[in-house]
Write a structure and sequence with these properties.
The protein has 14 helices and two strands. The chain is an all-alpha fold and about 375 residues long. The protein has a two-stranded antiparallel sheet. The radius of gyration is 23 Å and the shape is globular.
Length: about 375
């Protein structure tokens, strides 16, 4: 009962903010600068202590989701990215991009926390945070505050749906490459249609708590698959001197785009932190975010560096494409990554579903909420498979 009451309070406060009423609850007021003025109690308000989530995730579960959200198709493209940058430039630039991404994510989460403290609310979504930040920011930005939630939601939905589309293409292509070795070749579109039902079913998982075991399985498969890929890479590895240390300025943009796409996980970060049982452990020197991003950057550098040394200019968009097509072990690797990315699809699709359902549909539907939520999830899957 306590959790339900807490969630009801959270939803009421967030809906109040979404509807345009950003007056802090419990008697707090805003001055001309938009900062919160209330009693000493307000200054001591800790949003983390007032969160009541129906299915909170532990630190380990959140770390697993973070790793799975970033260890997608991007890591398989790192050998080609290093080919565009050179291995010295690639190592240094990947560290810098990883640091920059982590730093920006820290700023985002910290800013949300501070806004929650000012408004004395336990939680704010990404678009709500943007709206409040504009309202309490420089005066010339305040007129745009009401339009920012829709803009943020729009960009987030398009961004996440794009990732989901890439994942579907990767899974369908991987399955096709293996299936074509044993059966009559089918069109890629046919494989995509076959995936529609299982993708819809896994997208029916309604919270991150239930999704955690699947992410754990996907992480295990990913790490085993990476180990098997490295076994191919380390076989007859050419000398490092045979590869370029530095790439050209023209090709660096290709490296940068690939690496940034692979490392950036802003779409799921807010959802992960908001659903934690102990969100105070998300940041910090050895917090979930730092540990997760450190592991991710090391893995990206390792796969990118050794993959480039192995394949050089022949490194393809996915390192799995460089593996022997008729080798059974190589085929097993492709299927393993197809399964891992298939599971990750549910994590990436969680964000647009959460935005559409929680922000725009849930409070407008009074009957058969669960049914219509499943309709929303089915719609998202159909859009990404189209």
């Amino acid at each position: 009962m306590k959790s339900e009451n807490g969630d009801s309070l959270n939803m009421q406060q967030m809906q109040s903010l979404t509807s345009g009423n950003t007056t802090p609850p419990n008697g707090a007021t805003l001055n001309k600068e938009g900062t919160t003025q209330s009693s000493l109690e307000s200054a001591e308000y800790d949003p983390h202590k007032h969160r009541n989530r129906p299915h909170p995730t532990t630190n380990t579960e959140t770390l697993i989701h973070l790793l799975k959200g970033s260890l997608g198709t991007g890591i398989l493209a790192m050998p080609q990215a290093f080919h565009n940058s050179g291995y010295i430039t690639g190592i240094v630039a990947t560290i810098l991009i990883g640091f920059l991404c982590t730093y920006c994510l820290h700023i985002l989460v910290k800013a949300q926390y501070e806004l929650c403290k000012r408004l004395r609310v336990p939680i704010l979504s990404y678009p709500q945070s943007m709206k409040v930040a504009f309202e309490q920011g420089p005066s010339f930005l305040r007129p745009f505050a009401n339009s920012t939630p829709i803009i943020v939601d729009g960009f987030m939905i398009v961004y996440q749906l794009g990732i989901c589309c890439v994942y579907i293409v990767f899974v369908a292509t991987s399955i096709k490459q293996v299936a074509d070795q044993y059966y009559e070749p089918l069109d890629l579109r046919t494989h995509t249609i076959i995936l529609l039902v299982p993708l819809t079913l896994i997208n029916y998982i309604r919270n991150l708590k239930l999704l955690a075991p699947f992410s754990t399985l996907a992480n295990i498969i990913t790490f085993i698959g990476l180990g098997m890929i490295l076994s191919y890479i380390f076989e007859d590895l050419p000398p490092v001197s045979s590869r370029e240390m530095f790439g050209t300025a023209k090709d660096f943009s290709l490296y940068f785009g690939t690496t940034l796409f692979a490392l950036e996980a802003v779409g799921v970060i807010v959802a992960l932190e908001n659903n934690m049982k102990t969100p105070q452990n998300f940041r910090g020197t050895f917090g979930v975010l730092n540990v997760g991003m450190f592991v991710i950057v090391i893995l990206y550098i390792g796969v990118g560096f050794f993959g480039y040394i192995k394949y050089g200019q022949y490194a393809l968009g996915s390192v799995t494409l460089n593996l022997p097509e008729k080798d059974v072990l190589a085929q097993a690797i492709k299927i393993m990554f197809a399964i891992a990315i298939f599971i990750t699809y549910a994590l990436q699709a969680y964000v647009p579903v959460e935005i559409l359902w929680s922000t725009y549909l849930d409070h407008r539907i009074t009957e058969k909420k669960v049914f219509w939520e499943y309709v929303c999830r089915t719609f998202i899957t159909l859009v990404t498979c189209e």
